[in-house]
Amino acid sequence: MLSRWLQRISAVLIPAMSKSIMAAASTKPMAPVTHGGPLSTRLIWVDCEMTGLDPEINRICEIALVITEGDLTPVAQFDPIIIKQTPESMQNMSKWCKKTFKKNGLLTRIAESNIDTQNAEEQVLKFLQEHTEPFTCALAGNSVYMDRLFIAREMPLVAAHFHYRTVDVSTIKELVRRWYPAKFAAIPEKKMCHRSIDDILESIEELKHYQKEIFIPLPEASSADSKPTA
């Protein structure tokens, strides 16, 4: 079952990412993407709410972004865009999403939205271009590979702007849970609102916790320590 799911994900992700780069290249001249360009320390935090987890039938219905410096200092915030869904997309929405989005108000906002996916992509891309260079900033978030997968399929120009590297806070969480259980117990509690901007801000706070408690800077060597010995 798992192997078949992974095969389906690979079958979608690889062609979608290839198409996204080709689509971006066709709009204006860009330098060849070999190693993603000079890597910036800035992070592009993204969170999408989708109508389900199957990229073949489900769609992005909300997206938000935050740009931070590498030390997690905020640079800019892109407030959530809610994308209107087709009747088919609403029919394919998972039961969990229908229940959750009804509770948090997103279901009503989707019905009221007049923004389509193309318009959302244009706005997101404009924001990214104002604050980051193409192919230089890693994507960040919790289990953000799934967001990348959907973005690659539905917003190829946006997907092509990201560096291929990823800072997945969920990976760090799983390692801390195994190696530093006491620190894991002190992780900031999440509200679990399942709204894009709330999820991003909570992901940043979670990484700040790891930054403070796990990734402790080593003391700088004193001048005496740095002198070569005879």
From TrEMBL:
Q: Name one Pfam family in it.
A: RNase_T
UniProt keywords (A-Z) are: Exonuclease, Hydrolase, Nuclease
Which superkingdom?
Eukaryota
Gene Ontology annotations for the cellular component aspect, listed alphabetically: mitochondrion
Q: GO terms for molecular function, please?
A: 3'-5'-RNA exonuclease activity; nucleic acid binding
Q: What sequence ranges are listed for the domain Exonuclease?
A: 42-216
What PANTHER family does the database record attribute to this sequence?
OLIGORIBONUCLEASE, MITOCHONDRIAL (PTHR11046:SF0)
Assigned protein family:
Belongs to the oligoribonuclease family.
Protein's name according to its UniProt entry: Probable oligoribonuclease
